[in-house]
Amino acid sequence: MILWLTIIGMGIITYAIRLSLLGLWEQVELTAVTHRALKFVPIAVLSAIIVPEMVLPGGTLDLSLGNGRLIAGLIAIAVAWKSKNALWPVAIGMIVLWLLP
Amino acid sequence: MITTARSEFWAGVRAELPILVGVVPFGMIYGVLALAAGLPPLLAQAMSAIVFAGSAQFIGVQLMAAGTPLAILWLTTFVVNIRHMLYSASVAPYTRHLSRPWRWFLAYLLTDEAFVVAILHYEERDADLPDLTDHQVNLRPISYQHYYLLGAGLALWTCWQLSTAVGIFLGTQVPPSWSLDFTLALTFIGMVVPLLKNRPAAAAALTAGIVAVATHQLPYKLSLIIAALAGIAMGVWLDNQTASPLPTPYSLQQEKTP
Q1: Alpha carbon distance, N-terminus to C-terminus of chain A
Q2: What are A27-57's pLDDT values in tens digits?
Q3: With an 8 Å Cβ cutoff, is A4 touching chain B?
Q4: ipTM rounded to 2 decimals
């Protein structure tokens, strides 16, 4: 039951954000500053997820070359930079992770 | 160009198809991770229909597995999804003439992937019209362009539900040694790296990453919220220092990918 409540709450929050200026407050326009701040949200949120996944395997900081996730992640970043295609970083990153000892 | 509701709808579906190639593995991975986090299959699928937001769902199942209090889980959902307010604002000028049921249903379909496709289409079409000032925008000819967003959104919705179902079906057969959880980070790398087009963006990413690592011992991934706020603050601060006078009204032009 608590799981259902959790999911429905998440759904309401997500939907309310999407509906905000489209259906709830249609006459409101974002200020330029708000607009700028929102542009950084996906960058900041995703980076805050990515970096710990790379450098904290098992919960402890590991910046050595023996950290497969760090190496695979760095290669995936390079691949993403070059290819601009969202699939290649996943494919090549996983192959590197599997091949590393 | 003469358009009909049907032609706009299918044009939206077709424009969405290339993006779906990347959505299928993402949805499958979500299904696998949701089961791994201990969610029953029905709930894992229901989440894809009710929340319908990939990154929030990934974080959500991890937090649920960690026994996170509801308030923190919901706050995290809010922070991760607040970017959709930008989409809501950008689409609003194109939906003002629509009835409430239309607008409320399109809001449900307003995901990253459907928004990107639809807004590029709308801006291209605007470019074909004679110069419109911001106030004249509401006077543009009545069209069926909302069917375009509907088509793109429903194509994505269908794809997301089906790929989640496949992931749930495969879930129990995927051994942990495959390290499939790392595909989450890799998927996000593919999404975020193309956004790092200037110094403020790169600094925002770096700041968020470092703060997230520095605060990772806080419970319930509170580090995620703190790091996100730090990254946003850094980005806005640098942006204000380097930016030319504020453009008004805002436009998505600068965000168009080349």
Answers
A1: 43
A2: 777 788 888 888 888 899 889 989 999 999 8
A3: yes
A4: 0.88
